[in-house]
Amino acid sequence: MGDEHRSLLNAGKEALQAGDLAAAETALGQAVVQAPDLAEARLLWANCAARQGDVRQARERFAVLLRQHPGYFRGWLEAGHLSRQLGRQTELMHFYRTATQVAPLHWEGWFSLACALEAQGQWDEAAGCYHRALPLATRAPEGEAVAVSHVHRQMAKDRLERGDAARALESIRQALGLMRVEQPAPDVNVVAALQIDLGDVLMRLGLTDAAHRAFEQASAATREEVLTRLAMQSFHHNLWQEAQDVLKRNVALHPDSALARWNLAHSYVESWQMDEALQTLAQAEAMAPQPGAKSMRASIAGRLGDADTAMALYRELAQEEGPESAMGSSAAMSSLYSDSLTAEQVAELHRSLFAALGQGARPPHEFVNAREPSKRIKLGLLSADFHHQHPVNIFMQPVLARLDKSQFEVTIYNVGVAHDDQTQLARSRVDHWVQATSWTQAQLARRMRDDGIDVLVDLAGHTSHNRLVMLSQRVAPVQVSFLGYPGSTGVPNIDWLLADSVVVPPEHDHLCTERVYRLPHTVFCYAPEAEYPYPVYDAAKAERTLTFGSFNNVPKLTPHTMALWAKVLARVPGSRLLLKAPSFRDESAIRIFRERFEKLGVDASHIEFRGPVGLADMMTEYADVDIALDPVPYNGGTTTLQAMWMGVPVVVKQGNNFVSRMGASFMRAAGLPEWVADSDEAYVDIAARMAADRQALLTLKAGLRARLQAAPAWQIDAYAQDMGQALRAMWADFCQKSAAAS
CA neighbours within 13 Å on the CB side: how many for 209? Predict the structure, then answer.
């Protein structure tokens, strides 16, 4: 090959490594034109197409490469990697098996085949391939040889990504054992990286004490990327202070790194230390431009209750980044908190943000699923949130336990990063579990189609880790939005929204891009599986200072809400307000909200701020509240139902869209319509009237849980049946329309 060809190839390599895919595409394409028989150029060109998301082009380029060079090991191996990303099981097995045939002494072929076989449950053959890879690792050609511990580390990573924590633990322990005797001894950062993996696995298995020890040992790392990853994993497992300590050490070790300060600023935001976050962000920006600065400032604004500023910043970012930007979801979510937008404006914003996503989507009639209305439905649930304390987990666990398995074959597609005993419980309650955290949109979509999912229920909406871009292109004949997002998503090709007749009455259908299916009682059934002892509401409770309360996140404390609550406190002299939220671990947040209430004429001594505690402890704190106050326009959901369960009635205002009518749904379902206001004035009147008769209030509180348990909306067995009937009706509707169109 001449110097010109070599120059183009090297330029393409460098651009690919730097992430400049356009430059890589140009250089590698020219290299292929000038040297069409050069295998390395064709391989990099195929990989470039794959990284750009052009799957069709990547597959075509691999096909040409392998026809020209049938003995090229790296071509077969990386074609297998692409097929694996796409979820094409038959193809990837063919590619990996061929790789082992053309290069039987190369460890990577056997290793990749072992991983693929394990993913398909072919354990015996997988073990054989794994053990063939191990001794070959140190004998590979110069530049490709690796320590045997490296192979075990890679297997642990693969197993962990598939959610196979027990087998991942086995591989990690083998790797750690070998590291103690391998020469040269591994760098401290290599060992620390493996200790992070060990801690993650142990947390998933519920071995928290051992996990904490592993994370502690990992803190000996000195490399910036290792310390950053340790902090990230600590955050994922709610080890907030430990994570922050690691990031502070990272800044001390790398004082000239803008990224180290950026990560510390992000940790401050996550732990609600807003003053420190802004100061550290400014330090990072002084060192180098920070592309994510606008997003961080939007997040801070939202967390401090300034929804309109957050929404405006997120909309700017969405416009800059294009229709698939995650900032669109952040803007949509922020709009639900806005005091200034009407329900129609919120709906229009959602439509405008996401309309373009539906272009080129797969039509429902192209799916080959058997259109039998009465068949056992293949039901997919898409979520990142089956873990302790998350509302999706709280509401879905009892449903999973009761869904009729003769009617539904259930698969959970888990795209989350948190794993605990609740994750394992959800896994045990369904037929199939697909761990898809690291999967691409294309890979997950292919897997869902291969699984033949009939009805896919998205449990995320516009919340974290969502896959709405994938859903907008349609991955199942019937797609449903439920639970994770309190309203219409605005995303094309989501067919149904599960609701009830209060949160979305028929006259509000125009606010939804989805068709609305109304459950007969209330949209969410609260049936906690944990035991929360009911408070004793004795005469002493009627003698104490009347305490209003809210256990809602800070973004819900909008200016409108705070003004409303200030009026309530003024109407009930001597009363106090207990506010509990994650942000109130931060003194700066407490100061800001105390000052806001003072400007509204509220004596600061009448407000108590409490930070976060564990769920069981939080539930006991409801005994300190006499009457809960629902925020507007974003009502409490889980928190309102938890308050009611613990004997605390809630003053609610019935608004004009899903998110502002949840409280009304719950209180009406409990047979307490007198607690539902239709205006700000009525809200204040209800709060004052209910506070005035302490004995009647005490009587209601003493019997509130029993009242709920007797109400239809709290009958979880019937609710699960209603849910099943809803999903069956949606499937039957699709079958009927398909038959009519054929």
Answer: 0
Q: Closest Cα to residue 697, out of 570, 546, 532, 579?
A: 546
Model confidence at 114: pLDDT above 70: yes
φ/ψ of 169, rounded to 5, equals -60, -40
Query: Which CATH number do you get for residue 100?
Result: 1.25.40.10
Here the contacts of 367-376 (C-beta below 8 Å, separation 24 or greater) are: 367/449, 367/476, 367/477, 369/452, 369/453, 369/454, 369/477, 371/734, 371/735, 371/738, 371/739, 372/735, 373/728, 373/731, 373/732, 373/735, 373/736, 376/406, 376/407, 376/408, 376/409
Q: Distance from CA of residue 13 to its chain's centroid?
A: 34
Instruction: Evaluate whether 222 touches 253 at the Cβ level (below 8 Å).
Output: yes
The dihedral sign for the CA sequence 414, 471, 507, 486 = positive
Q: Same domain for 495 and 568?
A: no
Q: State the greatest distance between any 2 C-alpha atoms of the chain, in Å, as a whole number.
A: 94
The residue whose two tokens read 């690792």 is 137
Query: Which helix (DSSP H) or strand (DSSP E) does residue 697 occupy?
Result: helix 694-702
Structural domain total, the chain: 6
Closest CA to 426 of 379, 378, 392, 470: 392
Instruction: Check whether residue 24 and residue 48 sit in a common domain.
Output: yes
* Positive or negative torsion for Cα 430, 433, 437, 440: negative
Lookup: tokens for 273: 């230390």
The model's pLDDT over 500-532, given as tens digits with 9 standing for 90+, comes to 999 999 999 999 999 999 999 999 999 999 999
Q: Could you give the 3-state DSSP secondary structure of residue 455?
A: strand
CATH of the domain at 586: 3.40.50.2000
Residue 219 maps to a domain: no
Q: What's the confidence (pLDDT) of residue 545? A: 96
515 with 626, same domain: the answer is no
Q: How far is CA 101 from the centre of its chain?
A: 41
Does residue 457 register a pLDDT over 80? yes
Domain match, 487 and 373 both = yes
Both 56 and 74 in one domain: the answer is no
Show the tokens assigned to 647: 């004997």
| Tokens 């998503």 belong to residue | 489
113 HSE (CA, 13 A, CB side): 28
* Helices marked H in 254-390: 258-270, 274-287, 293-303, 307-321, 327-335, 343-354
- Domain identity same for 319 and 343: yes
Compute the C-alpha angle 614/584/640, nearest 5°: 60
Could you tell me the pLDDT band of residue 143, with boundaries at 50, 70 and 90? low
**pLDDT average, residue stretch 648-656:** 98
d(CA 398, CA 382): 17
Could you read off the pLDDT of 87-106 as tens digits, one per residue? 788 899 999 999 999 999 99
* pLDDT value, residue 184: 85
CB neighbour burial string for 64-76, b if at least 16 within 10 angstroms, e if fewer: ebbeebeebbbbb
Question: How confident is the model over 584-638, as pLDDT tens digits?
Answer: 887 878 998 999 999 999 999 999 999 988 899 999 999 999 999 999 999 999 9
Question: In the structure encoding, which two tokens stand for residue 338, read together?
Answer: 């806005």
- For the cut 50, the answer to whether the pLDDT of residue 724 exceeds it is yes
Paired tokens of 164: 């196979």
Is residue 199 helix, strand or coil? helix
By the 8 A CB rule, do 129 and 117 touch?
yes
Residue 116 structure tokens: 């693929």
Which of these, 477, 516, 472, lies nearest to 491 by C-alpha position?
472
413, pLDDT greater than 60: yes
Residue-number span of the structural domain to which 491 is assigned: 367-525+719-741
Query: Rounded to whole angstroms, how far apart are CA atoms 579 and 636?
Result: 13
Say yes or no to pLDDT of 163 above 80: no
Same domain (yes/no): 551, 693? yes
Pair 492, 399 in one domain: yes
Phi, psi (rounded to 5 degrees) for 72: -90, 105
Angstrom distance (rounded) from CA 264 to CA 277? 8
| Average pLDDT for the chain | 94
Could you tell me the pLDDT band of residue 1, with boundaries at 50, 70 and 90?
very low
Percent of the chain that is helix, strand, coil (3-state, to 5): 60, 10, 30
